[in-house]
Amino acid sequence: MNPRRQKRLAVVVGIVLLVSGAIGLMLYALNENIDLFYTPSEIIDGKPGAAIPPVGQRLRIGGMVVEGSVSRDRQSLAVSFDLVDVDVNKAVTVKYAGILPDLFREGQGIVATGVLVEQSTIEAHEVLAKHDEEYMPPELAEKMKGIKHVKPTEAGY
Amino acid sequence: MWKWLHPYAKPERAYQLCHTLLPWFATVAVVSLIIGTVWGLVFAPADYQQGDSFRIIYIHVPSAILSMGAYVAMAIAAAVGMIWQWRTAYMTMIAIAPVGAVMTFIALFTGAAWGKPMWGAWWVWDARLTSELILLFLYLGVMALYAAFDDKLQAGKAAGVMAVVGVVNVPIIHYSVEWWNTLHQGATISKFGKPSIAPEMLWPLLINLLGFAAFVGAISLMRLRNEIVQRELHRPWVADLVANSNARAEKE
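Output (structure tokens, whole complex):
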């Protein structure tokens, strides 16, 4: 490589490094704003280095639906369930009136948008299902995870 | 070390190389796309959670991977153009750009169509979806910038800077699901360790991935060939080429 090309190579590499440095710092500064949702323990304890979200704030929460916590109103579409993350003791209750996504079931990841009405209660106006990155046929899932595949229409939700 | 590559900087040699490689890419693309798509959409088992809806993975994942792969290829071509000042490198860059843009669009579109029944939303502004949308805008930006100049060498240089700088977005797309919490799930196959997908579902996906890669390669080669001929229209070798193909056509 002749010296002129070497110089141009250095310039190109330099530009890429500078730009990635700048964007890296930007993303680091905006870190908590890029997260799509709060986890239940972040709502109760606050994000590391940030304040606890105040009551009345509009926010998104993401977590696992606690088994046995789903309770439905017989007269309407109203439903409430608890969400947890790794810390099982810090549950946040979500109240929602509307149609739940097909993938909604106990033990499933959920992202809900709503308003924090109490320190650990959210009134949601949108509930989305979050599924994991594992794909397998029903028979294998039954064998490996003990999950019996039940179609949502038959599950009784 | 890279001296053997230098002759291919000449448009005539690059044209011949495209001509030789194209049938191979096209054959691999057609064969693997047919096998992978039919196997994936018809014969692969349904998912335990998502049922048949998960089959859109056979289009979504390959197009998403290729949207990033094509961008890296385009950025490398742009960098080669800037460092070695090869006109053919810029031609390669602009040949790849629309192909990558279409792959990005397919990934976004199939993602939305998959998101609606599974998540419950067509679109969510999470880190993965947003960074993939930025990738589409980067492709469109490179194409628009290139089209804005009449002098195509200037156009290549300007668009090349944008292509090279935009490559920063590619690792952000890939790691977005790990760095931030997102609605989009984590990586299934493009990670170290065992893929989190059953083998009988994985094989058609890999075959389709190969098919998409060969397809992107084939279309880019065709576009590059056209680009070279268009730009070299006044050169004697193009005139010879046209005369030859005319003569062949007359004989038939």
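Residues 3-33 of chain A form one domain.
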